[in-house]
Amino acid sequence: MSNQLQTNLIAAAIGATIGVISAASIFIYQKVLEKQQHAGKNAHLDEVDRRLTELQTELERLRVQQNQQRKKKKLNPKRENDTTYATTDNDTDVDFSTAGDEEFFDCSDSDNGISDIENRTTEATCPGLNFSALDAHHQRGGHEEDDYLELRNLVDTYPDSVDVVWRYARSCYKYSNCTTDANVRKAVICAGIDACEKLLDVQNADLHKWCGILVGVNGDFLPVAEKIKNGYRFKEHVMKALEMRPNDADLHHLLGRFKYEVANLSWIERKIAATLFSEPPSASYEDAIDSFQKAEDFSVKVNLENWLFLSKCYIALSNYKPACQWLEKICDLSVTSEEDERIQNDARQLLAKYSGYQ
Question: What PANTHER family does the entry give (predicted)?
Fold first, then answer.
């Protein structure tokens, strides 16, 4: 994925979903309980919020259609011929990585990511359509709005095509990161989730993967209790995708991030989660290491983010020798992207802090 995608993917971690819940969050939780005593009023407010979301989605749809019409007027006949769907039959690898302790997971197009599509043939759910150009755009970046507009039209025409829908969900995620308008971002994300949820009975790993990512992004717009539920939904989608594609490195990395954030919960965060749900999530740093190691084993590319989180897990376990070994590997590489530079800087700081503990 592109560097544009690196900036701000999704944050719906347990850090942002189940935690980071401080004293201020406890106050919010108390307010949630108070609202439960006014169920009738809440039901009305929920309905109003639902309708506002629908209106925002429709407005965004009209806006992008208008933009597309303007662009079509500017295109010459040669350009129109170039934008048909008959391109090539080769799918393109898409890279995936995560970044930041405050984020649950992140998508990027950097070389340290892991493939989303690994030389797999596009499923023939839409005869005559070919997605090679869209997949290539996704890998290179820079076509976020154009791809979103194109897939928005395709999903209207082929709402039952899993190949169209999961790519639409992917484009919703990418396009949502290109806008600073929170209302537009929310509308685009919700539209992508809605499209995916209509096909969740279809056994497709990419559908669950990108639906889960959008569910995570949507946590930014939810109150605390709903964010916690989002964490559960996210894990469910990742697990279902892994059942269908057990050797997918980025899915194992996502699961590792989930486990890491759960293991990193504070006592008060665990108490709040236990109060809200009968079975709060449970995971250890060893569990997270297991997932990160699987991501490393299955990855076909260097994933600096995965190395960084492996080191963080070992540091949390006071096992500093393997932690520093992973950090040294990061520091020894030559990096070119801003994201890789950020990871390398983090690794240098951790190495300087813990190298004396070996």
Answer: REGULATOR OF MICROTUBULE DYNAMICS PROTEIN, REGULATOR OF MICROTUBULE DYNAMICS PROTEIN 1
